[in-house]
Every structure is written in C-alpha cells, then in structure tokens.
C-alpha cells in the first residue's frame, strides 16, 4: 500500500527503538529503587489531578466518543485532509514539505536551517522531533538545538533521554535536578536550592537570552486544522509562545495523523487533552497560527516515518488516534515500575508498546523489528490504559493483535518450532481427547511431591521464579465426581 506516493516501510526510524529488548532493560530499571520512588510519586499525583477534573464533566464519555469518531474520520480520509491542509497553509504564505522518514525529515530541516546562516536554534517540546532524532542531525551539521521546555532542558543538560511523553524528566526528583543545574547550566548561583520555584527561575534566566535572540525556531504541533490551515501548540510554561512568535523563521515538524478536519473539531480536543495530560481544565498557553504570520517565514514538514504502514493495518491503525496526552502511562502498573527508558522508544508506556512496533515493523531479526517485537508483551493487559485514553484506543486488544503478529514474524524467520509453540501443540493434543485429558489431570497430582517453586524443572523454573506456584489438589474434580457415584464426566 502506498499513500500520497510515500512508502509504507520507513527507511530511517530515528529514536523509535533501543539497544535492548524490553525484558532485559526492565530488569535493570526495576532494580533502581530511587527511579521507582520518583515514578510512583509523580504518576500518582498526575492521576489524582486528572480524576478530579474529569469528574467535573458529566459528558466526558460523549467527549471521548466524539474524539475517537473525529480521529477515525481523519484516518479514513487522511489523503483528502492532508492535501486540504497543504493548500490552506500554502495560500497563507507557508511552505509545506513531505518527509517519508526520519532521514528525509532531518535533511529537510537541516537544509532549511543552514540556509538561514545560523548555528543555533530554539525548540518547542516536540515528540516528532524527538522521534526522528533531529537534535543529533542538527548537531552533525554544526547547529546547536536549545530545548526551551523545562523538562526537556533538564534531559538535555544531563545528556539523558526522555522517559515520559508529557514530563520527559519524570524519572528525576528535584534534588537531582538541582545537581544537574549546578553542574551543567552556565552562570547558576551556587546557593541554588531544590525549591521548585527557584529551579524554574534559574531555568528562566538561562533561557531568556536564548529566546529573545534566536532567529530560527523548531516546533511540533498538537493539531492542524485542514479547513483553515491553522496549527496549534498547547503548553504550560510560555516558552512555546516565545519560540513561535519571536524568531523570524519557524519550522514545524508534524506527524501526518495530527490533522483534524474543521475548526470546530478542535474544540473537542482542547477539552480532552489538558484534562488527560496535566489534569488542568485548559492549557495555560494555547498558541495558534495560520501560515506565515507577522513577517515570519514558515515551513511545515509533514512526517510519515511508518505512519502509512500503521494505517494499512485495520486492527492496528487506531493507535494513530493518539493525541500524546500520556494518560495511559500514568495509570500503567508496568510503566510505573519500569520507567520510560526500558521501552527504548521515545514513545514509552502502553501507547508506545503498540505505536513503536507498528512504526518500525515487527518482522525479521533486524535491530528495530526484532527489539520492538518485545514491546507488545510489556503489559499486564489490565485495561487501565483503555479506561484512561481520551480517544478510547483499545490498547489491550491491540497488544494481543501485535503479539500475534510478532509470533508470526518470528515464525517466518525461524522455521523450527519454538519451545512455547511445541508446548502449546502438545497441550492441544492432550486436551482434544477426554481420556488423555483425564490421565494428564491425574498425573498433575505428582506436583504435590515438589516442594517450593525452585523445584520446578526448566523452563518452568523461569516462570516460577517470579510467581507463587499453587499446589495441585489431592483429588481431581473428575475423580471426585466419579467417587460420588456420578456416571457422566
């Protein structure tokens, strides 16, 4: 399948995969007690705020349904809406660029910045630019990208990686942030405390000069209205507003799926997003612009990077409804214990477990496909993510679907049956015959002779290493039934 002439298989996927599978990375993460404490405190606070503001709306269910319906309409007619958006942006003086993958998007943005003659740009927090690894691409061309979002700044100063969609430095506490500022932020007062207000003031002082003197800014976009060509960025600190208005050149990188059909549709998402993300009734700063405004030069880069491949899967495309609120991360018991870095991708948590494998592909033994094939298993399938999602993405069902795809992809590479497949085939054979099943149940009573979970033989010993193994009953139900004088099984 092709879409608007773009290939479905991404040639370059940026920061959508790590160097370890999720189980391997998670083992290290869960051993970090400070990390788990930081995550637990932060996610519980956000959950409580979200629950409070959501409860204020008697029509929250209807808003979720409306958001899901709008997004599904977008996905069904994405070609029409994107071309309409391009037409409106161009008519308003902007320039639209189409990028097949991360490599092409980075090339486009780098060439645009180089053409201005600057060696430094300021950035609004953007998942799309994180996804494609734009900062590294600009650095390779001798251009410094200055993150102006407070949490992104913390991550950048410490040469760290984001671990949350909304709060990239959620894995850091304020004492750690103070040490990062003292060590890595030029000109910081050595008497700086870990008071949040003091930390924010230090970051503001550091960034103010950068924001006022920058001539080029790079942003993402939360939404783009096809009807008018209007783009929208919502944020809480005001740095985004300055990035979008002060520099004379603005370059926006946006995933194809961020478009909404009409201005009125935006009303739905401006209610859903702040409540689901930060637990606020509305974002403190909502910036909108249409084309080139107030003498700016404006460029819009529309990014595929695997999105059309995701769109081609009827059972997986709903992941493209995502509005990047991170509500699913904040309720996920797996994310709360393992943290975002364990997922490898810039999209962690439940939505990352379904989105990243689809953007990179699941097949083969390649670095991205092979590693990300473990992500659909990074879940208990408890369903909390579905309950929290403001656009009703059925993440648990999608995880099961992707697990099936991962198994099929692995089977294509390894023609010999795996141990799991052999065990399931044997179980099916036993269960298909009543006599065999009865004998197997009776044989199961031998497990009473095994004392302790460590006594189980491999490979069952690995499964039992993290679980309490129940002791088999002294008598099977079928034997009890027969002993009581019943003649039918």
From TrEMBL:
Gene3D superfamilies on file: Alpha-helical ferredoxin, NagB/RpiA/CoA transferase-like
The keyword Oxidoreductase is assigned to this record: no
UniProt GO BP: lactate metabolic process
Source superkingdom: Bacteria
Keywords of the record: 4Fe-4S, Electron transport, Iron, Iron-sulfur, Metal-binding, Repeat, Transport
Stretches assigned to the Lactate utilization protein B C-terminal domain: 417-485
Domain LUD stretches: 84-293
GO MF annotations, alphabetized: 4 iron, 4 sulfur cluster binding; metal ion binding
Pfam family for this entry, one: Fer4_8
InterPro entries documented for this protein: 4Fe4S_Fe-S-bd, 4Fe4S_Fe_S_CS, FTHF_cligase-like_sf, Helical_ferredxn, LUD_dom, LutB/LldF, LutB_C, NagB/RpiA_transferase-like
Domain 4Fe-4S ferredoxin-type: 319-393
Protein name per its UniProtKB record: Iron-sulfur cluster binding protein
Biological source species: Pseudofrankia inefficax (strain DSM 45817 / CECT 9037 / DDB 130130 / EuI1c)
Source taxonomy: Bacteria, Bacillati, Actinomycetota, Actinomycetes, Frankiales
